[in-house]
Specification:
Length: 520
């Protein structure tokens, strides 16, 4: 990177209105390849609450919290139910997956939405009913015909990860990560802490992160084979992004890009390390696409199939470490039950106060996540980037499951698991007076003060996003965000958009004009 291009990158990052703990990143309209270059429900099911996952390479039981599926009962791949029911030269019949939308299916099958038919009405924006049969023109050819890799619930930080203890697992494995320590910001963290941090912040399943680390470098059960593994345990080799934490952040970013890109119909092909491309099988699930596209970044087209599906490949490594993921998925999927909807959520500030919608839908968490977040700021006349005297308040009742690095997670179902049900995520909550983990809150209880802390920001505000069963949820589309009855609508670009209610509009603007003012 030249000095001139580095200066341009720095200038760009200084203009970002809302960023995240762990360093600056490009916005979500930039590719993850650009990232590499510029950085050079619901309650936990009873069956899972008593299940155990433990290292299968040690004879010492390490955890009594999450069920091991015995290695002897593993199958090489447990595929999803068949979704192409029948086909001919003109058309095919497709059975809907959980989370499928008309727009995404049209993109995957390379047809227009109007060309997809069914005996049952198809919603234009919402989720299509699970298992509904669709008739789709059969004009799609030339895709990778391979089975799925992992269920969705094993890729996102879903109910299957609720109760999994990363620290206990690594202690039982007794490899390099069990004694690893490193600084992340101001925190001195263990290897388990770092895996959990990335898992929580990016909402990626910790079991998948551990399987990737073991497959790529052997650090879960073994020791580094050479000095390069200390710097780049996953092998991304991005200058300035060395170490376990930053390598995991890059992996999580790739996984989210593939996962939500497939969900929304933006990702339709795998781009391999050698630059070759392959169209993705339109029957594939989002979790499998996430892993397939990540491994495409790390391997050439010729290597990719063997390292993913072959003997001692990633799938086999994952199953040897944690048992059959498809058996666990049966306990919690579909992640989006038919009829799912957002519970009532109020604006996160007291009635009568004046706040401003400073940012419309943009990335929920770093590049790769969907446009699921809004930025709102108190109208107080305080200095830019001061810790505001105004309070961010609970938009609904629940329990605080995380309060760390200026992030607060509010679990609305109150079971204490961030992986289950609806969860509201707040960023830029100041250290001063920030609520602690484990506190039960009622509607309008204080959570903390908006600020610029926890990332790069051009002004005091709070960033609010939603998750359901571990998935980041876009602020518009199948499950639009409603705040005090105002519906979020997206603009053409990140940070653009509005709130709509009873024919009135509040328009997002970073400078806070009258048209952006919110009064609850």
């Amino acid at each position: 990177m030249t000095k001139y291009s580095l200066l341009l990158l720095i200038c760009f990052l200084l203009l970002v209105g809302c960023n995240y703990p762990g360093g600056q990143e490009p916005q979500s309209d930039l590719s993850v390849d650009h990232l590499r270059q510029t950085l050079a429900a619901n309650s936990l099911p009873t069956e899972l609450s008593t299940a155990i996952i433990e290292p299968t390479q040690t004879t010492t039981p390490v955890n009594n919290e999450v069920e091991i599926i015995p290695t002897s009962s593993m199958t090489s791949i447990s595929p999803l139910p068949t979704t192409i029911l029948e086909s001919n030269e003109q058309e095919l019949r497709y059975r809907v997956h959980s989370g499928d939308t008309l727009k995404a299916l049209a993109s995957r099958f390379d047809v227009e939405p109007a060309q997809i038919r069914s005996d049952t009405p198809i919603p234009a924006e919402g989720f299509i009913t699970l298992g509904q049969e669709l008739i789709i023109p059969n004009q799609f050819m030339g895709f990778i015909s391979l089975p799925p890799v992992l269920p969705d619930s094993e890729v996102v930080n879903s109910p299957t990860a609720a109760g999994f203890n990363t620290r206990t697992y690594l202690s039982g494995a007794n490899g390099y990560l069990s004694s690893y320590r490193a600084k992340v910001g101001d925190l001195n963290l263990t290897g388990a802490d770092i895996v959990e941090l990335v898992s929580q912040e990016a909402s990626i399943n910790p079991v998948l992160l551990l399987a990737l680390l073991e497959f790529r470098s052997g650090l879960v059960f073994g020791q580094p084979r050479d000095a390069s593994v200390f710097k780049y345990p996953l092998g991304f080799n991005v200058l300035g992004w060395e170490g376990l934490h930053k390598e995991l952040v890059i992996a999580a970013t790739h996984l989210n890009t593939g996962y939500y890109g497939w969900r929304e119909g933006r990702t339709t092909e795998i781009v391999f390390r050698d630059g070759k491309k392959e169209r993705i099988n339109p029957e594939m699930n989002a979790g499998s696409v996430a892993v397939q596209t990540l491994m495409g970044k790390l391997y050439s087209q010729q290597e990719w199939q063997q390292v993913l599906y072959g003997t001692e490949g990633l799938i086999e490594t994952h199953q040897k470490m944690f048992g059959d993921p498809w058996a666990r998925a049966k306990l919690v999927e579909p992640l989006f039950p038919d009829g799912v909807g957002q519970p009532a959520i109020e604006f996160p500030f007291a009635p009568g106060q004046r706040w401003s919608l400073t940012g419309g839908p943009h990335a929920s968490w770093k590049t790769g996540s969907p446009r699921g977040a809004l930025d709102i700021a108190p109208v107080t006349g305080e200095a830019d980037c001061s810790v505001s005297y105004q309070w961010v308040t609970a938009p609904a009742g629940g329990v605080i499951t995380r309060s760390l690095r200026n992030v607060v997670a509010l679990d609305l179902d109150g079971d204490g698991y961030e992986q289950t049900g609806w969860v509201i995520i707040f960023l830029h909550i100041a250290d001063q007076d920030r609520i602690q983990t484990g506190v039960f809150v009622n509607l309008d209880d204080p959570i903390g003060h908006p600020s610029c802390e926890g990332g790069t920001s051009t002004g005091t505000h709070v960033h609010i996003a939603r998750k359901f069963n571990g998935e980041w949820i876009a602020a518009y589309g199948p499950l639009p965000m409603f705040l005090s009855g105002w519906e979020v609508q997206a603009g053409e670009k990140d940070y653009q958009g509005s709130l709509i209610k009873n024919g009135q509009s509040i328009i997002a603007s970073p400078v806070g004009p009258r048209t952006s003012i919110i009064v609850r």
